[in-house]
Amino acid sequence: MKKLIVITLLAMMSMSAMAQEKINWMSIEEAEARCVEEPRMIFIDVYTDWCGWCKRMDKSTFANPVIVKYMNEHFYAVKLNAETSDTITFQGKQYVGYVREDGRQGTHRLARTLLNGRMSYPSYVIMNEEMRALQVIPGYQNEKAFEPMMHFFGDKVYLEMSSEDFLRDFKSELEPEEAPDQKQ
Q1: What is the pTM of this model?
Q2: Domain range for residue 40?
Q3: Do residues 134 and 126 make contact, with C-beta atoms less than 8 angstroms apart?
Q4: What percent of the chain has pLDDT over 90?
Q5: What is the tally of structural domains in the chain?
Q6: Residue 144 domain-assigned?
Q7: Residue 41: inside a domain, yes or no?
Q8: CA 109 to chain centre
Q9: Each residue of 83-100: pLDDT tens digit?
Q10: How does 1-22 read in b/e, with b if 16+ C-beta sit within 10 Å?
Q11: How far apart are CA 65 and CA 91, in angstroms?
Q12: CATH (domain of 159)
């Protein structure tokens, strides 16, 4: 009986540790500094506090253990609130928060720059190791849509082939593969 209790407790602790793994989010200034020391792709999640789809991304896609592990190994992951009033320094330039004429909070100048003025939340900016934007991807992405996108950029496949060719042969880690005797 004691062995069963110990095994159960160990299993629960193991599951709890796995459930606690999260994407290592950082500021864009932190990502830039780390990229200088150890070059890596940068993934920027541009969000707002009121955005329901942004919250859903955090609770589903960004909480998936497969996504978390890959993001932490291949990207510096940045959260950028598009409505912050903070001054942000990126690539030697200062970007200030924006306040509209009516006194209400507007969009941050860095968010506007990164999204090329197309303010849609959530949106994701993929940057290479030289901190140049490669792609802006707007909208909610479930795990099945997000996984190949992060591999396309994180594995640097974008340098060798089109996304269409890549997607044709992509094997997801999210779904178990069929047993060989079940293939038709």
Answers
A1: 0.82
A2: 22-169
A3: yes
A4: 74
A5: 1
A6: yes
A7: yes
A8: 21
A9: 998 999 999 999 988 766
A10: eeeeeeeeeeeeeeeeeeeeee
A11: 32
A12: 3.40.30.10
